[in-house]
């Protein structure tokens, strides 16, 4: 693990500091380590959510929705597969 040399400071109201200290104590951690881990976890979650989002131009989205809403157009392979299925499958 890399040595922590950079600093990040923030102020909190006394009630929030007490909350963090109490939770850290219950977790068996120092308040600084507890707060750092919580901030790192949240940062990773936000970045994952941001990176998982795909942005496309509105015209692309409109074309996609129109294509999904249009009736299916069978192609040659699908038509052939359906014909083979009718030859092999019997229904009672």
Would you give an account of this structure?
The protein is mainly alpha-helical and 92 residues long. Helix 1 (14-27) packs across helix 2 (31-51). The chain is elongated and about 75 Å long. The protein has 4 helices and no strands. The chain has one domain (14-88).
Mind sketching the topology for me?
Layout: H1 14-27, H2 31-51, H3 58-69, H4 76-88
Helix pairs in contact: 1-2
Q: Nearest-angstrom radius of gyration?
A: 29 Å
Q: What is the number of helical segments per DSSP (H or I, 4+ residues)?
A: 4
Unreliable runs:
none
Main sheet characteristics = none
Task: Indicate how many domains the architecture comprises.
Answer: 1
Tell the overall outline.
elongated
Structural class: mainly alpha
Q: Whole-number average pLDDT?
A: 92
The share of residues in extended strands comes to under 5%
Order of helices and strands: HHHH
Number of beta-strand segments = 0
What separation lies between the terminal Cα atoms?
67 Å
Percent helix, as a range, is 55-70%
In summary, what is this structure?
The protein is mainly alpha-helical and 92 residues long. The chain contains 4 helices and no strands.
């Amino acid at each position: 693990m890399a040595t922590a040399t950079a600093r990040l400071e923030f102020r909190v109201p006394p009630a929030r500091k007490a909350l963090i200290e109490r939770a850290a104590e219950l977790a068996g951690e120092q308040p600084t380590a507890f707060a750092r881990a919580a901030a790192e976890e949240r940062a990773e979650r936000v970045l994952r959510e941001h990176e998982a989002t795909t942005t496309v131009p509105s015209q692309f989205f409109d074309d996609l929705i129109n294509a999904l809403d249009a009736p299916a157009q069978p192609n040659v392979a699908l038509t052939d597969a359906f014909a083979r299925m009718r030859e092999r499958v019997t229904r009672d």
